[in-house]
Specification:
This protein is an alpha+beta fold. It contains ten helices and seven strands. The strands form two sheets. The protein has a five-stranded mixed beta sheet with strand order 2-4-5-7-6. A hairpin with a 5-residue loop joins strand 6 and strand 7. It is elongated. The relative contact order is 0.08.
Amino acid sequence: MRRWLARYSVDMPLLWLGIVLSSALIFVADTLTNFEIAFAVLYVAVILLSARAGRPRAIIAVGISCGLLTGLSYALTRYGNPESGLTNGALSLLAIVTTTYLAYKSETAEASTRETQADLARMARITSIGELATSIAHEVSQPLTAIVANANAAMRWLAAEPPSQDEAKQALNRVVADAARAGEVIGRVRQLVARVPPSKVEVDMIDVIEETLALTRGEMVRNGIVLRTDLADHLPAVVGDRVQLQQVILNFVVNAMEATHKSEEKEVLVSAAADESKITVSVRDTGIGVPSDVADQVFEAFYTTKSTGIGMGLAISRSIIEAHGGAIYVAPNYPHGAAFGFTLPIKSGAGDKPRVE
């Protein structure tokens, strides 16, 4: 239990400082007042405060601590009628136990819901990766083909009379570089489909966008889609989960590619810009667009305009962006097509940082 509390106090220091101070104040007040005042009932507020930590076992630990403090306070109190104090103490303990149980059950249910949402999000990522299998295979096959060609070239340079070590070295350096390229593609795919808990770290959105577009570039070339980007040179950092944000962008790009499938002018524009308070990322296409009468429904669960869709991609994207404190939107792209995008709040105190290429 001590280990749990130590870890939680590091995760949310202000919350746990408030819990400790509140518990101490209630304990002192309950001990100094007479038995006729059920001051220990205020521990209910402490338990509800601990529920904000989002950890069921922490709620149990705080509930047990409050119960022990109530019993200790009763033993140390010297004023008033002990029988009244016993009654008030029993009522306080009942309130503490009941609140702890209800808070624990509520947080357990919320944790289960979050886990289910995470599983749905992961399945959506896997579905998107499946749709892009050809593109990913193309991205991997290019460096693999180059590896074979450069390796054969190195062997020929070494077999020459006399051997050309400099030329062979250059060919082998290209083999290493191409192997790294293939490894990066595979690593991005593994990261997207891996089952990992959400994280809140400083994220460079330009890197996130470029890594996501690398997975779709082959599919765009195969379908004759022109990819354009308009990415600001310097963007402040945002705090969020890198994989989840990649999923949102990937979903937007895949939808844009599908929307332009039957268009004569096939073009996708991905842009990112920032103002003083937020970063805006948008994906515009020249496809069929979104009718104005259904624009408010496209982010609802199970709503889809695709014959083979299940209507979860955009709904999950909305939940991800809202969990990051942002907003998601859809708008017309003139003269035709649709623009899907989202805004994210800029990391507090972050300034414009030059990108290191």
